[in-house]
């Protein structure tokens, strides 16, 4: 936790103690956390150092979908469930992902490696059905593609 | 007539979207140079000449907005580029920022110098992290090249651009909600007045335009308003970016001249349906737009036509569904989206969307009563009239279009039939005309 403290100090400094950079700072904290979330301690810490009321940060973290306040898996697999992906039968991808990971939509694998969740459209509708893992978008999903992607991610972890 | 054209997309694939030297080599910043040479009034008159309208959805004339921005007397003014593209089925801003980001930045500089602002912001949605990285690099390159900074291209004008990012909220596409989120607050629309043109980011007058609008300004200044007017119809000059998606053979972003028909877009450009199943419906302008039957296919896409038919072009999204889909199920997807994205600030939208979802579920499993079908309409109308911002006002558009005109899908399961009319198409158009014009009025009011 101590390390984290220092990390937040540096982050705030990098953003010149600018309160309007709150979203960016929160997203960066999340990106650098092991489990893709902003912890209570982080929020308290940030509130003191950036001099933004705790209530405001709490409101912001709960308002925005991209910020998690609960721990998630190392990889968050985000399957689009908006109109175009639904037209393109995204439920096939959902079933395959659930089978492949052995969890239900919304769940996290026991080893904390994968979280599977539905998200709203992220603008890859020309490649529907699509999913997002971190910065990467995978489109035109079918069963083969999905099992290949998951296997590759698992492979990364074993290296 | 050519079905697809390249006016605003002319630079696509001529450079990698990063190399600023190459952008200059292919004519980059010549629009900006024209402004420096001929002055701000020239820009406004060129824009007026073209009739260019905002491409974020509200379709407000760009020259009017800029003229007002220019005439506003204030110590500081900001330019804001709205790249929070969140409308399902829309991905044109993503393409523009990926393939020709400098044209967007150039448009922002042109806006800044025109209205007398020295600072611009670009707000890019969280869902486009690679685009954020790219634009950040482009801003850096532009500074190094002397295009941004203290002295723009060696003149006395100064202008700089800063990048902000969203965090996954559709409502932040609404200008005042976007600004709230930039200020480190949750992104809920502000009560108006004051409009953001008067009191925007940090209370400073802020002129917001969409990514596509900025890119068009750059192209219009570069090639001239006359060249732009070579495309399109007399009332809707020029071209438009269309995001085509759904059960279609060639989904993608296309630039088309105004005046092509939906048929052209779907069949000639999009290659028709992906499977053997025939066309069933299209949704225009993303989830907040109406769902139309095949009767619409022969209609030319122009502002005058679509508003006469009560169809807002909106962001230019066209999502196509084939016969294998049940429209009510499709609507459930639309409604799930709105329930999730309503910011909760006002009651008609917050509660209305939840109620509509419950009623739709009943409609879908066939347990709805006649009275409840009528209630759908009542709730929808209340939302249209009483919601605080465009989200709540447009959320029920799709539902209303479906319960009236996709009668087979809607009433097949329930065993009764609420008969709205014999002549479906005519009735539909008449109804939508009245309804949508009311909505449009609201848009104009809330534009600033
Ligand atoms: S209409 Fe909906 S999104 Fe807009 S302010 Fe009201 S609750 Fe929020
Ligand atoms: S609807 Fe799925 S990415 Fe847009």
TrEMBL record, chain A:
UniProt key word Iron-sulfur: yes
GO molecular-function terms, A-Z: 2 iron, 2 sulfur cluster binding; metal ion binding; oxidoreductase activity
SUPFAM superfamilies: Thioredoxin-like
UniProt keyword list: 2Fe-2S, Iron, Iron-sulfur, Metal-binding
UniProt cross-references to Pfam families, sorted A to Z: 2Fe-2S_thioredx (PF01257)
UniProt key word Transferase: no
Cofactor binding note of this UniProt entry: Binds 1 [2Fe-2S] cluster.
CC cofactor: [2Fe-2S] cluster
Domain of life, per lineage: Bacteria
Family classification: Belongs to the complex I 24 kDa subunit family.
Descriptive protein name: NADH-quinone oxidoreductase subunit NuoE
UniProt organism field: Helicovermis profundi
From TrEMBL, chain B:
Domain of life: Bacteria
Example GO molecular function: metal ion binding
Keyword Metal-binding (UniProt): yes
Keywords: 4Fe-4S, Iron, Iron-sulfur, Metal-binding
Residue span(s) of domain NADH-ubiquinone oxidoreductase 51kDa subunit iron-sulphur binding: 328-373
Pfam family of the protein (one): SLBB
SUPFAM superfamilies, A to Z: Nqo1 FMN-binding domain-like, Nqo1 middle domain-like, Nqo1C-terminal domain-like
The keyword Transit peptide appears for this protein: no
Annotated family: Belongs to the complex I 51 kDa subunit family.
Official protein name in the record: NADH-ubiquinone oxidoreductase 51kDa subunit iron-sulphur binding domain-containing protein
Origin species: Helicovermis profundi
